[in-house]
Amino acid sequence: MASDLQNSSKPVKFQDQRYTEYAPRLAAWRQECLARKHENRWNQDHILIRARSMKESEPLPMQLRRGRCTRDVMASMEFALYDAALLMGALVPRAADSQSQEVQAARAYLNQWPLPGINGHCEIDLSRLFQLGVDGMRADLELRRNQAIEEKRDTYQSFLDVLEGFTLLCENAAATARGGMAAATPERQTELSAMAQSCQRIAHEPPASFRDALQLIHFATLGALADMVGLVGPGHIDRRVISFYQRDIEAGRLSETEALILLENLYVLINEVTGDGAAVAAMVGGRDAQGRDVTNPLSYLCLEALRRTKLGYPTVGVCWHEGTPEELVDLAVELIGNGNSNPALFGDEQIQRGLKLYGLPPEEACDYINSACVEITPFGSSNVWPASPYFPVCRFLLDDIFSLADGPPATFEGFLAIWKMHLALEVSKEVAALNQTRETRRINGGKPFQSLFTNDCIERGLDIDRGGARYNWVECSFVGLANLADSLYVIQEEVYNQRTMSLAEMRAILQDNFVGHEPERLRFLKKHPKYGMNDEKVDRFVREIVDFVTAECARYQMAPDGSPFIPGSFCWVMHQTLGRICGATPDGRKAGFPFADGAGPAQGRETCGPTAAILSTTSWDPSAMIGGVAFNMKFNSSLFTSPEAFRRLRDLLVTYLRRGGFEVQVNVVDHAILQKAKENPEAYRDLVVRIGGYTDYFTRIGPQMQAEVMLRTEYQGV
After folding, report:
1. Angle at Cα 277 formed by Cα 274 and Cα 280, nearest 5°?
2. How many CB atoms lie within 10 A of CB 38?
């Protein structure tokens, strides 16, 4: 499927009459969705609903109050009906005046129970819902509630309350679809009838079709939003619903084209309810616990749906291993080369190795999700907090330069040891703060809907905020590794080996932000080798830093159950945010300039080409960095005019993964297009780019991030 790497913006398959008739409708819906991206994608007056619900339940324990609150928010959701929609799930924005006294009072009331920390960033486990349906789950929970006492009884009751809310959500959607039938054409009436029947069925029963399964996945996302849980992605769609797809195909109830259209509907709905700057993840491919490839027809369709929707969400990651079918890789490369930056490739071998390192058995280590950007969390069992916190490693380096300049250590090794002690102290402080945050969540929190679909909350009778989940890691991230490695090498050479200046003189230059010291800045930047040039003298610093932070993080345990504190190096947008508030650094970077994004070289320093950059970024072992490792590459779109160019890109990406790479993502666009998009955003509102591990709309990211994307090295050859 789609193994021909010809440069073509038209689909290779799916040119039958059904798709030809539907494509213009989807295109119109897509444009409507993009035009509405400035709106809040779900009920803006949920603050009022939450406050009203919490006041009505004031005498009750917090767990029961959270269950009723989530139920009431789900029950309040109103659905929009768009002409092209074949699945329900676009919400009617109901704007409340954020400055009104009523809203301000509601917000103040809810602020009595702060909920700090991360939530979501996961794929929940809907297998019980697929097998039992809502009514079957309700019967099981009623039995558990009747046999439980005290806190567990309250927990099971909160689970029952959110199931009631989920039923009301599904029935509201069904009623909306039925309500649109009177004014519809006969053809549209047939579509609306199918939508209404599907929603009504899954309000009580297990899904009976591929359509039902996709509809349920999206409704579960809305249930998580009602729980105040974001970034819950559809995950491994190809694994979760393949049985429904196969049964419908074999029974003649579904064609491959119809399945693709339904997937495209799911993607548009995800964009309808996902705000700017977020990240929603899907994955395809990979292996099972026995090491067998699990690629199936839906793996290809999940990628193919990107061609037509060309939207920012969801991202679709390919879990690559040596047995991944070439056709799947070819399809991903074809999309990338034609300017769709959405697909990313993940190193399945490295990620599984890392998950096993942290205690997952093989049957779980093979089933994971990039929880939003590139942070890895286990499927269906995760209360993992990613990006907690981001450590600005170069800021600590500057602190040390400024504090030690008047009395520096005699050796570079001594200087590096002090920096390590500084970082260790920062890690210790953050772990203590995070454990206190988790205690606050235990007291004030409650995520009953997410808990329902997170192992082992039902078995333990505990909410996810109170220790019910199987895995409760915290994943931190170290931002600016490349800048740090380059800076350490400059300090080693300039201050200690060549002795061209003292540490005090370097401090003065950095304090002046290189003003009046341009020759020194250019020397720091150009004379010394940089990470990304395949130079062992610099690359070794990244390896040493990663080994150190991995060992340091391993010293700590996280509440509530002694879970590990896990490192990563992905950055979302934080390389720009943290760079903006950091002074000049010894690598030649000026104050305020973004740090390197993820684990790749700093902007503009891959001067030896993409192969050298790959060799540098695979010169160290990322398997323990389950908190996420992203490597960005950028190519000029003019390169991809022949099958040979696509094959070369594929070979580069596979080389990176074969050498042990964690994740690689590519932007294929030229500087001129980005500049035009900045000047005329309305004409390019669907231009999607890869940032620091996630995909976003170029015209909707901030001007500083736009500049950062444009500054990345654009390879002129593959």
Report:
1. 50
2. 10
Q: CA–CA separation, 691 vs 597, rounded Å? A: 8
For residue 622, say if its preceding peptide bond is cis, omega within 30 degrees of 0. no
What residue type is 304 in one-letter code?
E
Residue spans of the domains in the chain: they are 17-374, 390-629
If DSSP codes are grouped into helix, strand and coil, which group holds residue 325?
coil
C-alpha dist (Å) from residue 549 to 426, 564, 567: 11, 13, 7
Residue appearing with tokens 């029935």: 171
Q: What is the pTM of this model?
A: 0.94
What number of other Cβ atoms are within 10 A of residue 359's Cβ?
12
Nearest partner of 281 among 260, 293, 267, judged by Cα = 267
* Stretch (H or E) spanning 308: helix 297-309
CA distance 363 to 365: 6
Cβ–Cβ under 8 Å, residues 280 and 314: yes
Asked if residues 148 and 142 have their Cβ atoms less than 8 Å apart, the reply is: no
Which pair of structure tokens corresponds to residue 550? 């991995």
Name the residue among 197, 353, 339, 258 with its Cα closest to residue 17: 258
Q: How confident is the model at residue 1 (pLDDT cuts 50, 70, 90)?
A: very low
Structure tokens at 589: 């970077």
Separation between Cα atoms, residue 115 and residue 537, nearest integer Å? 45
Q: Determine whether 617 is exposed, middle or buried from the number of CB atoms within 10 Å of its CB (0-12, 13-18, 19+).
A: buried
The string of DSSP codes covering 32-74 is HHHHTTTS-SS-TTHHHHHHHHHHHTTTS-HHHHHHHHHHHHH
Across 570-644, the runs of DSSP E, i.e. the strands, are 631-635
> What are the residues whose beta carbons fall under 8 Å from the beta carbon of 114, sequence distance 6 or more?
440, 444
For strand 557-558 and strand 390-392, is the pairing parallel, antiparallel, or unpaired?
unpaired
Q: Tell me the per-residue pLDDT of 589-618, one tens digit each, with 9 for 90 and over.
A: 999 999 998 899 998 898 899 999 999 999
Token pair recorded at residue 146: 């009747």
Query: Which CA distances in Å does 594 have to 31, 458, 708?
Result: 33, 44, 7
pLDDT single digits (tens) 318-365: 999 999 999 999 999 999 999 998 999 999 999 999 999 999 999 999
Cα–Cα nearest to 170, from 86, 89, 289: 89
- CB < 8 Å & 24+ apart, contacts of 78-84: 78/43, 78/172, 78/176, 79/172, 79/173, 79/176, 81/176, 81/177, 81/179, 81/180, 81/192, 82/29, 82/32, 83/25, 83/28, 83/29, 83/188, 84/22, 84/25, 84/26, 84/28, 84/29, 84/265
The domain defined by 17-374 carries CATH number 3.20.70.20: yes
For the chain, the 3-state helix, strand and coil shares in percent, each to the nearest 5, are: 55, 10, 40
Instruction: Please state the φ and ψ torsions of residue 127, each to the nearest 5 degrees.
Output: -60, -40
